[in-house]
TrEMBL record:
<keyword id="KW-0813">Transport</keyword>
<dbReference type="InterPro" id="IPR003593">
    <property type="entry name" value="AAA+_ATPase"/>
</dbReference>
<dbReference type="InterPro" id="IPR050166">
    <property type="entry name" value="ABC_transporter_ATP-bind"/>
</dbReference>
<dbReference type="InterPro" id="IPR027417">
    <property type="entry name" value="P-loop_NTPase"/>
</dbReference>
<dbReference type="InterPro" id="IPR017871">
    <property type="entry name" value="ABC_transporter-like_CS"/>
</dbReference>
<keyword id="KW-0067">ATP-binding</keyword>
<feature type="domain" description="ABC transporter">
    <location>
        <begin position="6"/>
        <end position="239"/>
    </location>
</feature>
<dbReference type="InterPro" id="IPR005890">
    <property type="entry name" value="NO3_transporter_ATP-bd-like"/>
</dbReference>
<comment type="similarity">
    <text>Belongs to the ABC transporter superfamily.</text>
</comment>
<dbReference type="GO" id="GO:0005524">
    <property type="term" value="F:ATP binding"/>
</dbReference>
<dbReference type="GO" id="GO:0005886">
    <property type="term" value="C:plasma membrane"/>
</dbReference>
<keyword id="KW-0472">Membrane</keyword>
<keyword id="KW-1003">Cell membrane</keyword>
<dbReference type="InterPro" id="IPR003439">
    <property type="entry name" value="ABC_transporter-like_ATP-bd"/>
</dbReference>
<protein>
    <submittedName>
        <fullName>Nitrate transport ATP-binding subunits C and D</fullName>
    </submittedName>
</protein>
<dbReference type="Pfam" id="PF00005">
    <property type="entry name" value="ABC_tran"/>
</dbReference>
<keyword id="KW-0547">Nucleotide-binding</keyword>
């Protein structure tokens, strides 16, 4: 592994709250090699988005810091593109123009045609060329997320940061985009950090799965190396013992070692509200 591409060193963060500082993260240490695909998994509220936002330069760590290719990350930058948990398109710009705005300064010096071809290529990857002139309010949540992914890819970032990028999508679109992401990652070799709640997605896509402890003062609990050869085929992997072993490891971490104990009464209430207890713990298949 090439070391020293992206390093999180002793990262900790305190958020100010009316009751005093709240320590969300402490002692997060992680070295990521160039081109590596790392997933972050952990229960809701443990601090995954906070880690990603610190790498993006949107939050400043209270202790420690992030170093990318030898330089400390202090601000957001185009070499670290983010796909947010909730799509974040500019509502007054069309699909095409949202992507165009993001690539304008990374493609300075290119001709109009080159720029248009590049925007179209990235929108094709996510199957959104049919809606170029639509405003975000005129397309579905899943479509907005696809445009967000195209926008991030079009910036050709060194590091692609994705916060539950496929969480809002139906299963087929999700599978299709996971496959596209694997192809794009193989072609471009960018470093990816992706947050997911989906255990299958984490195993299918990752070189390493970073499993986080529950907060407050959350940190990395375990790291699992996924040594499945690439390219990976979801159908073949379904019966692969190694694949199932990895799945089991992650599920054990989440539901045994980091189990969240909920009082029985809350399960009864959720059943009465129409959501079964299994569904509550598992709103997506095997989701954390
Ligand atoms: N700006 C903030 N001020 C105060 N507390 C915050 C702030 N941002 C996050 N937190 C707290 O830090 C913790 C981690 O939040 P974070 O959003 O990183 O969790 P997460 O793992 O991404 O959760 P989810 O899976 O639900 O998205 C939570 O307890 C959250 O309430
Ligand atoms: Mg989050």
């Amino acid at each position: 592994m090439q070391a020293k591409h992206l390093e999180l060193e002793q990262v900790g963060i305190d958020f100010p709250t009316p009751k005093g500082p709240f320590t969300a993260l402490t002692d997060v240490n992680l070295k990521i090699a160039k081109g590596e695909f790392v997933s972050l998994i952990g229960h809701s509220g443990c601090g995954k988005s906070t880690v990603l936002n610190i790498v993006a330069g949107l939050h400043q760590a209270t202790t420690g810091g992030v170093i990318l290719d030898g330089a400390e990350v202090k601000n957001p930058g185009p070499e670290r593109a983010v796909v947010f948990q909730n799509h974040s398109l500019l509502p007054w710009l069309s699909v095409y123009k949202n992507v165009e705005l993001a690539v304008k300064h990374t493609m300075r010096g290119k001709s109009k045609k080159e720029m248009r071809d590049w925007i179209m290529h990235n929108l094709e990857l996510v199957h959104m060329t049919h809606a170029l002139d639509k405003l975000p309010s005129e397309i579905s949540g899943g479509m907005k997320q696809r445009v967000g992914i195209a926008r991030a890819l079009a910036m050709e970032p060194k590091v692609l940061l994705m916060d539950e990028p496929f969480g809002a999508l139906d299963a087929l679109t999700r599978a299709h985009l996971q496959d596209s992401l694997m192809e794009i990652h193989a072609d471009l070799g960018n470093t990816v950090i992706m947050i997911t709640h989906d255990v299958d997605e984490a195993v299918l896509l990752s070189d390493r799965i970073v499993m986080m402890n529950n907060g407050p003062a959350a940190t990395i609990g375990e790291i699992l190396d996924i040594e499945l050869p690439r390219p990976r085929d979801r159908l073949k992997l379904a019966d692969n013992p190694q694949y199932n072993h990895y799945r089991h490891e992650v599920l054990t971490f989440l539901y045994d070692k980091q189990k969240k104990i909920e009082p029985v009464s809350s399960h009864i209430k959720s059943n009465q509200a129409g959501g079964g207890s299994a569904k509550k713990a598992n709103s997506k298949s095997d989701a954390a």
